[in-house]
Amino acid sequence: MKKQIGKWLTILIPLFIGIGIIYYQFTTLTTDEIGKIKISFQKANYYYILLSLLIACFGYWSRAYRWKFALNHLGYETKFSNNFFTVCVSYLVNLTVPRSGEISRAALLKKYENVPFDKAFGTIVAERIVDLLIFFLFVCIGFISQFEKIYQFLLSKNIAIKTIITSGIVSVILFIIFIFIWIYAEWNIIVKLKKKLSGLIEGMATVYKMKDKWKYIFHSFLIWFSYLTMFYVAIFALPETSEISFDIVIMGFIFGSLAVGFSNGGLGAYPFSIALIFSLYGISNNIGIAFGWLVWTSQTILAILLGLISYVLLPVLNRNK
């Protein structure tokens, strides 16, 4: 009886959380803003939204497929279905507490594939490091190509450029010092910490040690290409955004990704980040917010649906575990 109750709670809790997230988002808007967003939703071409969601599903698939290379390197032959379903669940869980999906992903793999949590989590951390480097490449391309526009925007907001540069340099120096101490220091606390984190470190080290590292890197770029394509396709859903240039798309994608990364799935931040960056290029705030809501809502619904379906299918397809 307790197991049945637990299964139902596992299914219903994420559902109510997802509904609560969407409800909370709309309560932060004025009646006038909601009215304009409804108009945009009504005139949107949902063919492009569905195509965007299909591309997003491909990104889910590629992330799950990439994971098998790291796990195989550690000696674990996992079912692709379990990899895929745990990835889907992680997207859903990330809508509640930022980055908590990574923990649930490793925990579920431990439960259904008996992969030690620390090693599975280590491979996920390695993924995030690779993803961060690729995203940083997008940021460099976007900011270099749009430097003048961003520079003028920062000046208009009285943001000190020197402070940003100094903070960045100090952060890099501190990171290098930390890495140097971690590798070469023989302090007792460092040695003990290395032993406790040995499984995590082994998982993180899979990227440069694995036999299929180039396939892993290929899928890493493929994942981010699918994210960008997903965002690009969505601009054709609204007449007001269908003709914006690709450089604006890049900047919108960067700021939207930052909003998702630093919040629980872009909660309260994604539409307004898109509106902010679009406003630099003369796109009205209402259209920017409406477009952000259109993309965020569709992607959130997809994450909720795939996450719930995965929650249900994982125990069904792994009855013996």
Description:
The chain contains 15 helices and no strands. Helix 3 (46-73) crosses helix 4 (80-93), helix 4 runs antiparallel to helix 5 (100-113) and helix 6 (117-145) crosses helix 12. The protein has 321 residues and is an all-alpha fold. The two termini are 18 Å apart. It has helices spanning 2-27, 31-43, 46-73, 80-93, 100-113, 117-145, 147-156, 161-184, 188-196, 198-204, 206-209, 213-234, 246-261, 270-279, 285-317. Helix content is 81%, strand content 0%.
List the helices and strands and how they pair.
Blueprint (H helix, E strand, L loop, with lengths): L1 H26 L3 H13 L2 H28 L6 H14 L6 H14 L3 H29 L1 H10 L4 H24 L3 H9 L1 H7 L1 H4 L3 H22 L11 H16 L8 H10 L5 H33 L4
Write a brief structural summary.
With 321 residues, the protein is mainly alpha-helical. The chain has helices at 2-27, 31-43, 46-73, 80-93, 100-113, 117-145, 147-156, 161-184, 188-196, 198-204, 206-209, 213-234, 246-261, 270-279, 285-317.
Question: What keyword list fits this structure?
Answer:
321 residues; mainly alpha; 15 helices; 81% helix; globular
Query: What is the count of DSSP helices, taking H or I runs of 4+ residues?
Result: 15
Q: Which stretches are poorly predicted, pLDDT < 50 over at least 5 residues?
A: none
Proportion of strand residues: under 5%
Give me the strand/helix succession.
Answer: HHHHHHHHHHHHHHH
Specify the biggest β-sheet: none
The helix content is over 70%
| Integer average pLDDT | 80
The structure class reads mainly alpha
How many strands? Answer: 0
For the termini, the CA-CA separation is: 18 Å
Shape: globular
